[in-house]
């Protein structure tokens, strides 16, 4: 499930819930790209994403590139553990502006 909201000049916020996988790619693609036409800055709230695969990552990258081509930006906010794991695994934190979580050293 996805929902969107925008308040005046604030960024357009898109809430993504559930899986961001190949099985939902067609559905999610329109949800991610549609707000970019309307707003210069779009935030994707990924706090309720339960699974993220390479198709989901590709859609996020497509949205970011599309926004940048229009001199806008896409921000990923409120990341779920599933999102953080994949972003760390693929070393995409800096691409999306995610501050990596550094675990304290033990021993």
Task: List its traits.
Transcription Regulator spoIIAA, 107 residues, 4-stranded mixed beta sheet, globular, single chain, 4 strands, alpha/beta
How many strands, what sense, and barrel or not for the largest sheet?
A: 4 strands, mixed
The overall number of domains is 1
Low-confidence parts:
none
What distance separates the N and C termini? 43 Å
Strand order of the largest sheet: 1-2-3-4
- Coarse morphology: globular
CATH superfamily: STAS domain
Helix and strand element order: EEHEHEHH
Question: Which SSEs are present, and which pair or pack?
Answer:
Blueprint lengths: L1 E4 L6 E9 L4 H14 L2 E12 L1 H16 L3 E5 L3 H9 L3 H4 L11
Parallel strand pairs: 2-3, 3-4
Antiparallel strand pairs: 1-2
Could you explain the architecture of this structure?
With 107 residues, the chain is an alpha/beta fold. Helix 1 (25-38) packs parallel to helix 2 (54-69). The N and C termini lie far apart (43 Å). It is globular, with a radius of gyration of 14 Å. The chain is built from four helices and four strands, in the order ββαβαβαα. It has one domain: 2-Layer Sandwich (Transcription Regulator spoIIAA). It has a four-stranded mixed beta sheet with strand order 1-2-3-4, sandwiched between helices. 40% of the residues lie in helices and 28% in strands. It has helices at residues 25-38, 54-69, 81-89, 93-96; strands at 2-5, 12-20, 41-52, 73-77.
